[in-house]
Write a structure and sequence with these properties.
The complex is a heterodimer.
Chain A lengths: L1 H16 L1 H20 L10 H31 L2 H6 L4 H30 L8 H25 L2 H18 L11 H9 L1 H14 L5 H21 L7
Chain B lengths: L1 E9 L2 E10 L5 E5 L6 H8 L7 E5 L9 H7 E4 L11 H9 L8 H7 L15 H13 L5 E5 L7 H16 L3 E5 L3 H7 L2 E6 L2 E6 L1 H7 L5 E4 L6 H8 L3 E5 L2 E4 L5 H13 L6 E4 L4 H9 L14
Parallel strand pairs in B: 3-7, 3-8, 5-6, 6-7
Antiparallel strand pairs in B: 1-2, 1-4, 8-9, 10-12, 10-13, 11-12
Classes of the chains: A mainly alpha, B alpha/beta.
């Protein structure tokens, strides 16, 4: 346990020292929430913009922390041989991954509290289902962390950086995050609801409106939450890409 | 540390072939070889990063792949290229690594021991190459290991850093730790190692103490140092013997070192006003042994009576 907590503290401390990590994890979701709720630039489903945007930016925050920050950070640690050096200690893969997951969840808790507070200031009136929010955030974390670690474990550092950012942008625009899946053209709409981003947005919306059914989205997210880590476990390489 | 008939293949390439080598507590064993000889493959197999194609390796009695955690708890490693988190400081890195071990050393005195106390709060990326090497050495020692692997420990270090590595290796030997080191700095190896194993093309070429290797390599020859532009062909022709130049300015004359032969050499040099900065006969240096066994020779100049 001593090694796990020390490693977790290390992950959190080093993340806080990196401005770009804080930018992706906190600043971008908050800015998007404020901007898109005040400026009428996006097509949206019925209802007030904030009712769609608040759960959507929460999903975005989970995606930022668990796929982009974790994926890019781990990718560079692998690229530069930091993971190889840790591999020559008794830390072990389990504790290293455990520390990364705990640090990511800690970041997400801060993100979700901050986004919730900003959304409330902007007039959001949610009907909370805390259990479903926690379930959605955890399943989303597993799914996106799996994807992020799969990319980090297969690609070189700079290629992984580009791939994580490109995937983030694609999911943001076409994955039911910034634009509701119902407003996308038919083939893209079907794809968006099947992606982990769209499913997480739907779960978060259901958890904060208490009017929407969440069964299908929860099932899709659960499948991604299982497939993502399995793909990462099989595909991850610890040594730097040759 | 036991390596028994180790073979490691990568597809068609055999990086290590049938290597058998052991090292005991309190011994410093140096693994020498040219680039691509199989040193890193051997070391990475001991560290559990690679699996043997055939044969076995044991570190502190355990298989480094199957019993990775057990081995890592007793093994200290200094990788050839050790990168850390760019924002971590030396003190934080040592505290973090200390948390991985049951009976770790106190980080602050260890930092003092490697001369980094004044740099304890500087981010890793801002340390010089030598300081990063010193930290890598400290990280290898923090878990009080029974076995230590130092891959090129003096690379990038200044004179003071090299003395520090030598002192720490001596302390490890004295405390009963088994040390395996690789290096390209043969003079450093000669000063630190109890035994030397020379590998080339993945095969063990020789193993023994530096004195044993040199004695086994004893040949009738005269070694001397002179300006690199010396006319080797003319000298070879004059003395009717082969003259080789293993490195610029160092020459080996394949001739029985009789007083007459030495006199003839010095007269030849004196007549041409060529400065003689070093002359020796008899026991070869570790470097000479290494160069011969690994075939890293310069082209030879031959005397008139010798066929190429």
């Amino acid at each position: 346990m001593k090694a796990l907590w020390a490693q977790t503290r290390n992950e959190v401390r080093l993340s806080l020292r990196q401005g770009e990590q804080l930018l992706v994890a906190l600043a971008i979701p908050v800015l998007l929430l404020v901007f898109l709720s005040q400026v009428d630039v996006l097509p949206r489903a019925t209802g007030r913009p904030i009712d769609f945007l608040a759960p959507a930016t929460m999903a975005l925050a989970v995606m930022s922390a668990s796929m982009v920050s974790l994926g890019i950070g781990t990718g560079f640690e692998r690229h530069y041989g930091v993971l190889k050096r840790l591999g020559a200690t008794p830390l072990g893969r389990g504790r290293l991954l455990g520390a990364k997951i705990i640090a990511t969840i800690a970041t997400e808790v801060i993100q979700l509290l901050l986004l919730g507070a900003v959304a409330l200031v902007l007039g959001w009136q949610p009907n909370w289902c805390i259990g479903l929010i926690v379930l959605g955030a955890l399943a989303g974390t597993a799914a996106f962390a799996g994807l992020g670690l799969l990319l980090a474990g297969r690609l070189s550092g700079p290629t992984n950086l580009a791939a994580c950012n490109a995937l983030y942008l694609i999911l943001l625009l076409f994955g039911g995050v910034a634009v509701p899946a119902s407003e996308l053209p038919a083939p893209l709409a079907a794809l968006a609801t099947a992606l982990p981003s769209g499913a997480l947005v739907d779960v978060m919306r259901a958890a904060t409106t208490s009017t929407l059914p969440a069964g299908r989205a929860t099932a899709i997210l659960a499948v991604w939450a299982v497939l993502g880590p399995i793909a990462a476990a099989f595909g991850f390489r610890w040594s730097p890409a040759k | 540390m036991e390596i028994d008939r180790l073979t490691v293949r990568f597809g068609e390439l055999t990086a290590v072939h049938d290597l058998t080598l052991n090292s005991d507590c309190g011994e410093v064993l140096a693994l020498l070889g040219p680039n691509g000889a199989g040193k890193t493959t051997t070391v990475e197999t001991l560290e559990g990063f690679l699996s043997p194609t055939s044969g076995t390796v044991r570190v502190a009695g355990h298989d480094p792949v199957a019993d990775h955690d057990l081995v890592m708890a007793r093994l200290g490693v200094m990788l050839q290229s050790c990168r850390l988190y760019s924002a971590i400081t030396p003190l934080e890195a040592l505290r973090l690594f200390a948390s991985y071990y049951r009976r770790a050393l106190d980080p602050a005195p260890l930092l003092e021991r490697v001369g980094l106390t004044h740099r304890r709060a500087i981010a890793w990326r801002k340390l010089s190459g030598g300081e990063q090497q010193r930290l890598a050495l400290a990280l290898a020692l923090v878990g009080r290991p029974d076995v230590v692997i130092l891959d090129e420990p003096t690379s990038g270090l200044d004179v003071e850093g090299r003395l520090l590595v030598r002192r720490i290796v001596a302390e490890l030997r004295q405390s009963g730790t088994c040390v395996l080191l690789t290096s390209h700095e043969l003079s450093e190896v000669e000063k630190m190692a109890d035994r030397v194993a020379i590998i080339d093309g993945g095969r063990l070429r020789a193993v023994g103490t530096p004195a044993e290797l040199a004695a086994a390599d004893r040949r009738p020859e005269i070694r001397f140092s002179a300006p690199a532009h010396l006319d080797r062909a003319a000298l070879a022709s004059h003395l009717d013997a082969t003259v080789t130049q293993p490195e610029p300015g160092r020459f080996i004359l394949a001739l029985e070192p009789t007083p007459a032969a030495i006199a003839e050499l010095t007269v030849w040099l004196a007549e041409r006003n060529i400065a003689l900065s070093d002359l020796s006969t008899g026991v070869a240096s570790l470097e000479d042994v290494f160069l011969r066994l690994t075939g890293e020779h310069q082209p030879e100049a031959k005397g008139p009576g010798q066929t190429p």
